[in-house]
Specification:
Layout lengths: L2 E6 L2 H22 L3 E5 L6 H7 L10 E5 L1 E3 L9 H10 L18 H16 L7 E4 L24 E5 L8 E5 L1 H4 L4 E6 L5 H11 L16 E7 H4 L10
Parallel strand pairs: 1-9, 2-3, 2-5, 5-8, 8-9
Antiparallel strand pairs: 4-7, 6-7
Helix pairs in contact: 1-2, 2-3
This protein binds 6-phosphogluconic acid (6PG).
């Protein structure tokens, strides 16, 4: 796998690129398939991207099925819910049909929620679980989805969905997360990250890509398809030269 790295001027440009590349990829997939799949990330980076994606031209949301890479174990209307953020920014504005919204059950015990989502994925995908477009972010510690450094979830090779525990500093510790074997089957994985706070983690990702170290969880996402990092100049400062592919 070769990771494409695109340095954009600002965090807003990162969000715009995430939206525009997602729309283009979904349109291309819709030309060939009756239905396509989009796996969303949480956090703050994608908020503007999802607001922009909701306005994208030529996207038949009747044929786009939406999933999540991770979720905080809170009710769906909770301020910390990734579903709530997506509902506000994308699902409602784009009028995504309810039958196409496959949310992670954050409002039940984590073990039960993981099993419920595991069954939902099996029912939809069967044995060929492969997202057409996968969104991922990265935390300052290099986590992605809710795969945190040192977590036993990093070593899960069989289960598709597992409970996870965020560090004590997190607003919500109990999480559900997809596992690496699931993430790795994406046709297109788009990472979006911005800000100086993530510079060290991204430096570790680059070192991992160069084979110098195992790297943080975000470095361990390898995909069958294409993987692109959309980062801003503040994050990439001193690490990359500007390659604004737009
Ligand atoms: C979550 C996300 C998580 C996120 C990173 C970055 O549930 O929090 O899935 O992996 O992408 O923590 O978050 P920010 O975009 O807020 O920096």
């Amino acid at each position: 796998m070769t990771a494409e790295i695109v340095v954009l001027p600002t965090a807003r440009a990162v969000a715009e690129a995430l939206a525009d590349r997602t729309a283009a990829a979904l349109r291309a997939a819709l030309a060939d398939e009756p239905r396509v799949t989009l796996c969303l990330t949480g956090g703050s980076t994608p908020v503007h991207a999802y607001e922009r994606l909701a306005l994208a031209e030529g996207l038949d949301w009747e044929r786009v099925h939406v999933f999540w890479g991770d979720e905080r174990c809170v009710p769906p209307e909770h301020a910390e819910s990734n579903y709530a953020m997506a509902r506000r920014t994308l699902l409602d504005p784009a009028r995504v049909p309810e039958s196409n919204v496959h949310k992670m059950p954050g409002n039940c015990p984590p073990d039960e929620g993981a099993q419920v989502y595991e069954q939902a994925l099996a029912q939809f995908f069967g044995d060929d679980l492969r997202f057409d477009v996968l969104h991922l972010g990265m935390g300052d510690d290099g986590h992605t989805a809710s795969l945190f450094p040192g977590s036993p979830a990093l070593d899960e090779r069989d289960r598709r969905v597992v409970p996870a525990l965020a560090p004590a500093s997190a607003a919500v510790r109990e999480r559900l997360t997809l596992t690496f074997p699931v993430l790795s089957r994406a046709r297109l994985c788009l990472f979006a990250a911005a800000g100086a706070g993530k510079r060290d983690a991204f430096s570790d990702v680059l070192d991992a890509y160069d084979g110098e170290q195992a790297g943080p969880p975000a470095a361990r996402v390898t995909v069958d398809g294409d993987l692109t990092w959309l980062v801003d100049r503040e994050l990439a400062q001193g690490l990359m030269t500007d390659e604004d592919d737009g």
